[in-house]
Amino acid sequence: MKSLNTHTALITAGTGGIGFHTAVGLACAGARVFVTGRNEPRGRQAIKEMRRLAGHDAIDLLIADTSSVRANVSLAEEISRRVLHLDILVNNAGRVILSRTETAEGVEASLALNFIGPFALTTHLLPLLSQAPAARVVNVVSSAFEMWTRDPFEDLEHRRTYVAIQAHARAKLLNLLFTLALARRLAGSCVVANAVNPGMAWTPGVAALTPDAVPHWRFIWPIVRWIQRRASAEAAAAAPLLLASSPALAHVSGRYFNGVKEKRLPGRVTDATTQDRTWALGESLVARVLGADGRTA
Q1: 185 alpha-carbon distance from chain centroid
Q2: How many whole angstroms separate alpha carbon 200 and alpha carbon 206?
Q3: Chain-centre distance of CA 291, in angstroms?
């Protein structure tokens, strides 16, 4: 990994799991790192450990609910007050929501956490990213997006039926489509955007899964759990770290990586019209929460 001594990075949900190891890797390369978390005591402990591992104190915690549009906009504003430019944004926050719930802003929780939150944060950070000589947006998605084969805009908030892995799969598909739409909009600029499936990792979110959450694994559940428990979050972090810091990928944009290897996407994902519909959807959902004036309060 190259030296990142002049770089500033933001990693969402960086106090544990893949996000933690992504943040540590960037900090060890010398970057100034901000991580978000929801639990302050746990977050403070994570920051202490990160600083020990990195050998410097330029690592800070920002408390934020990354499933909230308003919180993401406030987070972007807070980062803008602290730094003059942002070189690396890793939208790592995301997990499978076991049962259908809605956020305080009235949005289905899986959609909010895995798509709308990253959309709101990224679009509000674009001015700060554009101030960097060469900036990178890394959206952490999931190979689960392949499980959603229907219209991605159908029954958007799963009011008719809710299966946890299906809601997750669709939200991650929308995140991937958003990433590709973003890359097209950034073409020719100093900012690149890519998506990555880091692979399986034993994290609290994975540990909380049940057979009902992933019905097609029900009959092989003991085998699935055996494999999951042996999947390292540190190893999985290698993929987002590569996209965030590799000199060879500095000008690569609009790509999808499965682990550390680029993977071709099906036509339903590379279709520009579908990408543009996803972008418009993100804008409309953010506007629905913020109101016509776009203010966070």
Answers
A1: 19
A2: 9
A3: 24
Whether 117 contacts 67, CB under 8 Å = yes
Boundaries of every domain in the chain? 8-199+234-290
User: Could you give the CA distance from residue 225 to residue 42 in angstroms, rounded to a whole number?
Assistant: 26
CATH fold for the domain made of 8-199+234-290: Rossmann fold (3.40.50)
Q: The pTM is what?
A: 0.94
Per-residue tens of pLDDT for the chain, all 297 residues? 666 878 999 999 999 999 999 999 999 999 999 999 999 999 999 999 999 999 999 999 999 999 999 999 999 999 999 999 999 999 999 999 999 999 999 999 999 999 999 999 999 999 999 999 999 999 999 999 999 999 999 999 999 999 999 999 999 999 999 999 999 999 999 999 999 999 988 787 767 778 777 777 677 777 867 887 888 999 999 999 999 999 999 999 999 999 999 999 999 999 999 999 999 999 999 999 998 445 544
